Predict the 3D structure of the following.
Amino acid sequence: MRLRVDQRTATILLTVPRRVSQRHALAWAADQRDWIETQLAAIAPPVRFVPDAVIPLYDLPHRIDWSPERSRLVRRDEDRLTVGGPLENLEARLLRWLKRHAAELLDRETCEFADKAGVSVDRTGVGDPVSRWGSCSSTGAIRYSWRLILAPEWVRRATVAHEVAHRIHMDHSPRFHALVADLLGADPKPARSWLRRNGSSLHRFGRV
């Protein structure tokens, strides 16, 4: 049996093998109350996309600079994201911009590493998965979490190199890890460690 906390929804997820009864599983989960309360207390409150909120774009603080007189188009200006238009749909506009920006940036970096590896990538895309930062299918399609653009550049690029390496090795063998390091030109382990330590905090942003 396994307990997990969904950082986005503060939901407790209980995984139970088929041979275990529901009564026994719920009793076991009840015994984990202290652990559950500790995990829930550790979840940081969500950060709404509202005027003057700060978004860690590339792990660098960017303040949302909103004025109703400005254009609705989002523009990055050094340490700010400037935007206008109606306040009631500000969050939706910013989220669309972030996802579009993530898709463009991750596609460009995927092409860069794919060229270096001498492989093709069928297509790239972004989503908002809970527990995965990237995935590569056997058909050559790669998808990423858009939230990677909230992480440092070296973490994001290590994740891209990881997924591109799966176009050659669909496993996590020593040859696979050696290829990731070769593509990246650096040890990817610090990036994986960063995501383990800090990845859950990226789900705070844009979560109502």
